[in-house]
């Protein structure tokens, strides 16, 4: 069986992290989120993939190639224009046979759940998740084990089963996609295609997602996913640990990385290849440090994602933050991550202040950002790629 993975979008709510790469290639626990999904699917028995790509698709093609590194086949299919989920899935026609599973490139799912899906015998199966606020989702109405209706954000939901966007289909779905018309959102919705399938008296079932649903829609969702994945990590140390460095708990250290004397690291933490860490730094749990990263003297980092090639200069504090590639922190840069009044931190997303739902959140920093010495960055600040601060500047 093959898996069709929808990976064409930029992820505009993830800006500026997606200024030069597609959302699905953003790293979580030091691997692109798309690779985590591929790994789960392979473990479940999938041996072929169809990537539906668009925005900066060359990044995906360069990283995954034809799938040889994973001993699978990967077809890369270009989506001309992003016109909804049905439109995207329609591009898989001719690349799959009989039944296939559809996954979103930004929704992490376990191999167990994928395995349960591909074992089902119905004409189609929808993954659903029990939620406390079903009015905010598309929900299904059921009759026993069958789905009899799909309702988008109903005022009076018939169930608490929200559509999680993972499907099992047969090739019959392609004919229905071709009959699907534009929705009020000016998109071709796969739920409309599914409703036509249901109305044809086909056997459409559902599979309840029992585990945590990790839908990475906004930058801070990466921190939640990172924490979950790091807790599942099997640690390995391939670098050099100097005698007076301390590693506690599950800490992974990549090849060519040096952990200098006085470094104190509490897992779960992952550190990539060719990094220079310390001396005398403090790295706290749920931190992922990419490749070729320098963490200087007397730096403290907690619950953050630091991407490849970034330099965190000495005497810096960084917490609950996402840092892009090739950034440079001038000495003494401090990132605030907690409001004085204890309220949730709001972040400007697509020009609007959005409640992150988090009491602790630092900076969301694009690629190639430079901070001057002794810069102070306030909670929930978004810094565009290529921006910089002057020495002593306060950024809000």
From TrEMBL:
Domain Mannose-1-phosphate guanyltransferase C-terminal: residue ranges: 265-383
Enzyme Commission (EC) number: 2.3.1.157, 2.7.7.23
GO biological process, one term: UDP-N-acetylglucosamine biosynthetic process
Keyword entries, A-Z: Acyltransferase, Multifunctional enzyme, Nucleotidyltransferase, Transferase
Biological pathway: Nucleotide-sugar biosynthesis; UDP-N-acetyl-alpha-D-glucosamine biosynthesis; UDP-N-acetyl-alpha-D-glucosamine from N-acetyl-alpha-D-glucosamine 1-phosphate: step 1/1; Nucleotide-sugar biosynthesis; UDP-N-acetyl-alpha-D-glucosamine biosynthesis; N-acetyl-alpha-D-glucosamine 1-phosphate from alpha-D-glucosamine 6-phosphate (route II): step 2/2
Top-level lineage group: Archaea
Catalytic function, reaction form: alpha-D-glucosamine 1-phosphate + acetyl-CoA = N-acetyl-alpha-D-glucosamine 1-phosphate + CoA + H(+); N-acetyl-alpha-D-glucosamine 1-phosphate + UTP + H(+) = UDP-N-acetyl-alpha-D-glucosamine + diphosphate
Single GO MF descriptor: glucosamine-1-phosphate N-acetyltransferase activity
Enzyme class: transferase
InterPro entries assigned: Bifunctiontional_GlmU_arc-type (IPR023915), GlmU-like (IPR050065), GMPPB_C (IPR056729), NTP_transferase_dom (IPR005835), Nucleotide-diphossugar_trans (IPR029044), Trimer_LpxA-like_sf (IPR011004)
Domain (Nucleotidyl transferase) ranges: 2-230
Entry's family note: In the C-terminal section; belongs to the transferase hexapeptide repeat family. In the N-terminal section; belongs to the N-acetylglucosamine-1-phosphate uridyltransferase family.
PANTHER family recorded: N-ACETYLMURAMATE ALPHA-1-PHOSPHATE URIDYLYLTRANSFERASE (PTHR43584:SF8), NUCLEOTIDYL TRANSFERASE (PTHR43584)
Identification of the protein by name: Bifunctional protein GlmU
Native source organism of the sequence: Methanococcoides burtonii (strain DSM 6242 / NBRC 107633 / OCM 468 / ACE-M)
